[in-house]
Write a structure and sequence with these properties.
- Helix 3 crosses helix 12.
- By secondary structure, the protein is of the alpha/beta class.
- The protein has helices spanning 4-8, 11-22, 36-51, 66-71, 83-96, 130-135, 161-167, 179-192, 256-259, 261-269, 274-285, 291-301, 303-310; strands at residues 28-32, 56-60, 77-82, 99-104, 110-116, 148-151, 172-175, 198-202, 212-214, 248-253.
Amino acid sequence: MSVITKITAGCAGLLMAFSTAVKGGDAINIPTHNWSSQLVGAEIVGRLFEKVGAEVNYVPVDSSAVYQSMCENDIDIVHEVWQGAFGPAFEKVVDEGCVIDLVTHDAKTREEWWYPIHVEKHCPGLPDWEALRDCSAKFARADSNGKGVYLAGSASWVKHYPEMVDALGLNFVLKNVEGAAHWAELDAAVKQDKPIVLFNWTPNFIEALYEGKFVEFPTHDPKCFEDESWGVNPEAKYDCGNPKDGYLKIGVSHHFKDEHPRAYEVAEKINFTNLDIAQQSNYVDTDGMEVSEAAERWLAENEERWQSWIN
């Protein structure tokens, strides 16, 4: 995620200025977040809207706050709603009627604890989650007081991992590491043959670089987040993993159709696959392209598809 550091600084101030300056304007406001496929996809969506005559603004917004911004009509569309990270926040505003659940992409997602394959020799029993209870000390660091360290990625990627660690009795602490530093930790651990477990997702560029596996926690069920009596720990919620084959959706503000009817028609047809999301990430994180270059490349390689979306 080499582009993350270019967009994270000053996001809050930019959003405040944006809300003051252009709220109620004629442009379509598309959020940008802190992972590469989202940034590239946002520009692809924006260029498609421009092809049907719309004006577009790209606005840095925290990925967990964006759904409230949609309710307030400050943001018009979120094209990458990942179920594991943002499902509860998204579904809440959909139920409230201020955001429309417009499209479910063909892409299937998973977001979970993950390890490179060499870790299995350090922690026999993986990918079963119970192996982590026996091997936690293998993942300890000098400042973790003997507990294993889980690299949880950005704090803005909302998870319930602290609650899950407690519910499943895992002797781990969470460490948030942003952007390129997250993947640098992985690269170093692979080169040095050290145990590491970190947040990962699919589709993503990492799967093209490193062989690895997701940790298999107890199977997700919505009751896991709502009912303490459900699951392996009858005294705690969140005693399960994230959804497998999770959804990837497009959500739009409740005013979007009335204010931008032509762009709304285009948005209804946009449909990304797992390969699309992986490619959009790979162009930046593996090939070193700038976001605009990556968007141009994807559009050039998929013209027949997007032409059907805008016509």
